[in-house]
Amino acid sequence: MAEKANEDSPETRLARLVLALRSQGVSDPGVLNAIETTPREVFTPDLFKARAFEDSALPIACGQTISQPYIVGLMTQALKLGPRARVLEIGTGSGYQTTILSKLSRLVYTVERYRTLMREAEARFKALGLTNVITRFGDGGEGWPEQAPFDRIMVTAAASDEPKALLSQLKPNGILVAPIGKGPVQSLRRYTGDGKGGFTVEALIDVRFVPLLDGVAKEL
Question: Whole-model pTM?
Answer without folding.
Answer: 0.93
